[in-house]
Amino acid sequence: MTKPRVLLTRKWPESVEKAAAELFDVTYNIEDRPMGRAEMRAALEIYDAVLATVTDDVKVGTFTNLKPKARILANYGVGFSHIDIEGARAAGITVTNTPNVLNDCTADLAMTLLMMAARRAGEGEREVRAGKWAGWRPTHMIGTSITGKTLGIIGFGRIGQAMARRAHFGFGMKILAQSRSAVDPTILAETGAVQVDTVEDLLPQCDFVSLHCPGGAANRHLINADRLASMKSTGILVNTARGEVVDEAALVEALKTGLIAGAGLDVFEEEPKVHAGLVECENAVLLPHLGSATRETRVNMGIRALKNIEQFFEGAEPDDKVN
Ligand code: 8YV
């Protein structure tokens, strides 16, 4: 039997590229360049499966008047707000993602950002590297304590819960959770979390707010100027979810005018472009979408994406079908 022809749109960890080659007739992206719309459309017409990432253009319009050969688009990543899910479905293409394997890793990074923003770690590092450190003094680069403070988590799915565990058990934080649906009381009880009904209920009560909801149109600019204004002036916002969840221009304004104290961001509205105003803000910690960037997790994401297409070509429904 001939092996299905599959395309890896970006370079993957070596071990999973090898595993892919044992199962499929694989085409690699040796130059590791992001794919544009035209290339993606051509790929969907040539390959049996395309293994895409967040950097590929698979937005609305990708599937219009397409005659796809591919029947599956397996995303290497859990978030899929960059994919036109309805368009793919209409074109007869199954879309899968890679949930679970990156929960701890992403929560670790959210905690990293929270701590960096609270303790001004980015600013401090920049000062040392610039040779501007004048030595210890009681009032130098004063941050804010974390232990015992209140953390609001917007989106209490698997990653939000992993964040709650870190904050609660590691730092004795009080957890407020906001989620579209009612969270199982046993899950809330594990970290003593209290669910609130709305984002408006949550924001004014929190010292830190961490976003763990999906991206996409429904949550675009969920954090806008009004909601930023309702946060404490000492509050810190952390975003490891998706860039579009935060109105970046409003955030810049809030950081520059002292409406909030700081932000830790791993995702941006127009990656890899970062709002010029954010770059000017000393009170913003900015990371280049590193949420899932550990060796272990990136391998597990690859294994999960391969499993999805294996299941698909065996005629089964992939575990992680999202449309
Ligand atoms: C991924 C992510 O690495 O999985 C996600 O949703 O945000 C990242 O951690 C990225 O999306 C790769 O496609």
Structural description of this entry:
The structure is a single chain. The protein is α/β, with parallel strands linked by helices and 323 residues long. It has two domains: 116 residues, Rossmann fold, CATH 3.40.50; 184 residues, Rossmann fold, CATH 3.40.50. 35% of the residues lie in helices and 14% in strands. The chain is built from twelve helices and twelve strands. A seven-stranded parallel beta sheet has the order 8-7-6-9-10-11-12. Strands 2-1-3-4-5 form a five-stranded parallel beta sheet, with helices on both faces. Helix 11 links the parallel strand 11 and strand 12. Helix 1 runs parallel beside helix 12 and helix 4 packs across helix 6. The longest helix has 19 residues. It is globular and about 70 Å long. It starts with a strand and ends in a 10-residue tail after the last helix. The mean pLDDT is 98.
Topology:
Blueprint: E1 5-8, H1 14-23, E2 25-27, H2 37-46, E3 49-52, E4 72-75, H3 85-90, E5 94-96, H4 103-118, H5 121-129, E6 150-154, H6 158-171, E7 174-178, H7 185-190, E8 194-196, H8 199-202, E9 208-211, H9 225-229, E10 236-239, H10 248-257, E11 262-265, H11 276-280, E12 284-286, H12 295-313
Helix pairs in contact: 1-12, 4-6
Bound molecules: 2-keto-D-gluconic acid (8YV).
The site of 2-keto-D-gluconic acid has 9 residues, from loops.
